[in-house]
Every structure is written in structure tokens, then in C-alpha cells.
Fold:
Amino acid sequence: MGLIVQKFGGSSVANADRVNNVASIVTDTYKAGNDVVVVVSAQGDTTDDLLKKAQEINPGASKREMDMLLAAGEQISIALLAMAIEKVGCPVVSLLGWQAGFNTNSNHSTARIKNIKTDRVKTAIDKHQIVVVAGFQGINRYDDITTLGRGGSDTSAVALAAALHADRCQIFTDVEGVFTADPRKVKNAKKLTEITYDEMLELATLGAQVLNNRSVEMGKKYNVEIEVLSSLKRVSGTIVKEVANMEKMLVRGVTKDTNVARISIIDLPDTPGIAFRIFSMLAAKNINVDIILQSVGREGSKDIAFTVSKDCEEEALAIIKGIAELQGKKVISDDEIAKVSVVGAGMETHPGAAAMMFEALYEQNINIQMISTSEIKISVLIDKNEADKAVTAIHDKFIPNA
Ligand code: ASP
Ligand code: MG
Structure:
């Protein structure tokens, strides 16, 4: 028994059946003797549909009005869910972001939560009401509605759990938890029982779309244990936390990212200042560079290659071609590549993970084009067509079939 925050994503409340299903999960938790605060997203594709409506009328609409519009999606879900809970016969109250005390800054469409004044939510809990709160939204100091950015309801839930000192924050979604690889692609992928915040952040940025990044950062900052689990199957999910009782695993997950382009600049003068010139020009245009490789200088010249996301490829190329010192140099770009990565906090203290990964690739005769490492991650750049084969081979090397 305790205070539990439960968050349900758009797919979990997509239609009447799903809303009734959520109501039964919530009321079962309540009837077991817990205080329950629920955070919900807009139903199904509602947010996308609202975006389309705005596009039809004014593609250049102000962010203030966009927030006013998009926040409506969550207003619908909280009311419908509260009605479904009423029907089961449990006391309930629905609250919009501002009513639940979510104060944000004024960055419309990507607002940050400044604080949560929990008085109203706490009063409702004291009255033994189930509290249903609209995710993704808040209010700024001018009393204007703000939204937290796409997928922001996860952050609303974790922030509210932190502010209420909840015993648990459960994020219900349409998958059963966090897997060691994409279960649709890798036959032996298994559900993790636990994962650290840092590992989850690496997996999230590498494309495992289960939890919104900011919610994981928030969980880490305020030490909120987050459980990711399915709203459709009642089985335990994956717990995201700092450390403690972690099962012994060298590698927690293998991911693939095909949104990568590599740009190489050949035969640069091997003199100081060239790398600075290139990367400061890219940074000035807010282009995020991932892996960087510089060849050993020979006969006064060297090559530099780096990767950016595919969406930035054209812009990065234009910037490079505009740099005076690089005039006449050969610039090659390639987006038929993929980044395959292994993530695991266990690698920090165990040497040999890189060798294992490279062995798996060698056994499949896959050539590595670039390598980068951090304390808990190793990434390689390979041919895009070999990415799925590589993920399976690496996965099965580190995480043998249990
Ligand atoms: N409804 C918002 C979105 O689709 C917020 C969320 O789902 O978390 O981005
Ligand atoms: Mg959504």
C-alpha cells in the first residue's frame, strides 16, 4: 500500500474499450488499498490530428495558439477516463495541468516544469479520490497554457511522482517493457527486469522508443523508480533505477540507428586549427556531430570523417563546402550506413566487450567503418544492409538464449 502514480500513453486510451481497460487497472490498484494518481496522454493519434488541423488553417501559427490547441487532446482523455472510473463506482476527479499545479517556463511547445504546487492533488488524495491529471501541459506565469514537447506526458508523470514523493511511478504502454533488442527483429530478445537510468538514456537516444528522455533524466535527478509495463497484458515490466540488485549483465541492449550520414574530407593539411574550424562552424549552426575520426597524418596531409543525423546531411555538406580553407578538397558523403551499438553499465568494469562485439561482426564477415566508445556504450558504423544481421549476431554473442 502506498501512493502510486500511473501513466497511460495515447495507445492505452485510444478507444472506449481501452479507456475501460485503463479504468479497471486504476480501480484495481485503488481497491487494493493504494492512493492512485493517474496521468494520461491524448487518445491515439489525437495530437497528430490536431497538428494537421492547425496546418490546414495557418502553418505559421504562433506557438502560444499551438499549445492552446494541442493541450485539448489531454483534456478529452482525462474526462473520459474519469467517467469510466465513476462507472466502476470509485471516487474520482479529473484535473488539467494548471489545476494540478504544473508551473512551467514560457517556452511554448517545449516548456520546462519549474515546480508543481501539489496542494489540490493532495487534498483530493486526502478525500480518497482517484486523481486523473492531464499530461503534457502546464501553465506559465502569465496564466497561458504551455506544453512540454512531444511525448511529454512521461515527464509529467515522473515529475508528479517526484513532487508527491510517490512510492512508485508506473508508465503503462503498448509494449511489455524494455527489451535487449527490438523483439520484432531479434528472435532471442528478452525483457529486462531492471535497467539503470544511464543505460536507459543511452538506449533511448539510440532509438529504443519506450520512455521519453527527459522523463528518464528527471527520474535520475529525483531518484524516482520508474516501471515500464504493458496496459494490455498484466505482467511485470522493466524497472528503471540507479543500481541495486542488478542482474549480472555485461550488455543490457543492442540497438541500430539508420538515421546516420558520414561526411569525409580528404587530404587536409596536417596543421593545427583545421578540426577547430570545421567543428566550430557546424556547432554554430547547431549541427550535432556524433562519431569523429581523424587519420594519422602522412606527408603533411590527413583525412577527417564524422557522422551527423541524416536530416542534417545537406546542411552540413553546405557548411563544409563554404569553409575557405577547404576549397578544392574532396568531400564525400554516405548515408547507406547504420550505427549499431551495445549499451551496458557492466562494460565500465569489464574489459573485453569491444573484442566480443568485433568478433561477432567478423564471424558474419561484416566490415567496420568507424568505431566510437563511451564508458557504457560501444558503437560501430557499418553498411546499412548488414545492420539487422549485425544486431542479431552481436545480441546472440552477449545475450545467449536463456
Ligand atoms: N499527446 C502528446 C504527444 O502525442 C503527449 C504524449 O503523448 O506524451 O506528444
Ligand atoms: Mg501521444
User: Anything to note?
Assistant: The pocket of magnesium ion (ligand 2) is lined by residues 10, 41-42, 47 (CB under 6 Å). The first helix runs from residue 16 to 31. The chain has a mean pLDDT of 93. The longest strand covers residues 260-269.
